[in-house]
Known about the structure:
This protein has six helices and four strands. The chain has a four-stranded parallel β-sheet with strand order 2-1-3-4, with helices on one face. The protein has helices spanning 2-7, 14-24, 34-40, 54-58, 85-95, 107-113, and strands at residues 27-30, 47-48, 76-79, 102-103. Helix 3 links the parallel strand 1 (27-30) and strand 2.
Amino acid sequence: MLEETRHRLGRLTPDQAAAAAREEGALLVDTRYGALRDRDGLVPGSVVVERNELEWRLDPQSPYRLPQATGHGLRVIVLCNEGYASSFAAASLRQLGLWRATDVIGGFQAWAAAGLPVTPPGAEPSAPTAHLSPHAPDPSGRAG
Length: 144
């Protein structure tokens, strides 16, 4: 199943992913869990989205989407730790209509091994940014 999924993605090497972010404005999405981010650091400029929130945070039609989820043509590049879970995550995003979603071959570990920029652990918060959730009260105090 993994190989079949990957065959449809047009996966990127870490260098290709870095170039896509730099030159095309692709959105790098880090789905690693907190302990790995705290241990290994972060990719500068990436957005941390826990895997269990990925679809509703990146679906351009979701009322709970990230501000970066601007449309179905957005180039989304998913990073997990070693490039396994990210393949399935990218495939799921494609099912939502994000037809340019893909992932990084080898994940964060390959990114770091390639000598690409990594923010050291503890240099910036590794927790996902707080966003309005479906169950949170409206921060403006207005009734829904």
